[in-house]
Amino acid sequence: MPIRRLLLLAVVALLLGGCGYNDIQVNDERTKATWAEVINQYKRRADLIPNLVKTVEGYAVHEKSVLTDVTEARARVGSVLAGPELQQDPKALASFQAAQGQLSSALSRLLVVVERYPELKADASFRDLQAQLEGTENRIAVARNRYIRAVENYNVSVRTFPNNLLAMTLGYDAKPNFAVDEEAAISAPPGVEFGTRPAR
Predict the structure, then answer these.
(1) The domain at 21-178 falls in which architecture?
(2) Which of 6, 54, 143, 152 could disulfide-pair with 38, CB 3.0 to 4.6 Å?
(3) pLDDT given for residue 83 in this prediction
(4) What count of Cα atoms within 13 Å lies in the side-chain half-sphere of residue 144?
């Protein structure tokens, strides 16, 4: 009797290994790990903002609206729960991405304003914060790229045969992924205007 059980367990293990169960598990864990890194980098950026705003505020007293925009955008980012459930809900992920996009836009406007204040640009603490922010933006891009690839691998593993049969049985669905910002604008063909040739 024990030999039959061992043989049965061995057959079941081989079948599960061959049907993609392990691939689904590995890819699911990879999406969780890469998502955690995305959140970590976005949090790092959010943590830099209060010091950046405070430094700019000391020099750019007349730029209250831009500083307020950055602070409000950071608050909106903080109000979007960034837990693992975002990986399953396309609307929640889109909301998270929109909030992060608004913060990026507000930071861009802030850095444009900084150009009007040479003494601020010369301030060592501002330069340090700006360098940290630029480094964090690069880390965000890398983390997002890794997450996009991890989700792609996961989605392929739960959609392809025979893994898809097991995935459906166990309730593993495809995960939503980051969308390209301004996707509609990017996909629109560029307008071309031909002017009249000058008379000779």
Answers:
(1) Up-down Bundle (1.20)
(2) 143
(3) 74
(4) 16
DSSP state of 95: H
Among 42, 41, 27, smallest CA distance to 150 is for 27
Q: CA 19, 20, 24 angle in degrees (round to 5)?
A: 150
Cis peptide preceding 162, ω within 30 of 0: yes
Tokens of 29: 């864990």
- What's the pLDDT tens digit per position in 135-177? 999 999 999 999 999 999 999 999 998 888 888 888 999 999 9
Residue 157's closest CA among 4, 2, 54, 22? 22
* Rounded CA separation 129/110 (Å): 13
| Assigned token pair, 49 | 């903002």
Q: Are 150 and 31 in contact (CB under 8 A)?
A: yes
For the chain, which residues make up each domain, given as ranges?
21-178
| DSSP state string for 102-148 | HHHHHHHHHHHHHTT-HHHHH-HHHHHHHHHHHHHHHHHHHHHHHHH
Q: Which amino acid is at 125?
A: S
- Rounded Cα gap, residues 120 and 150, in angstroms: 41
Asked which of 2-16, 28-42, 126-140, 181-195 is least confident by mean pLDDT, the reply is 181-195
With beta carbons less than 8 A apart as the criterion, state whether 135 and 48 touch: no
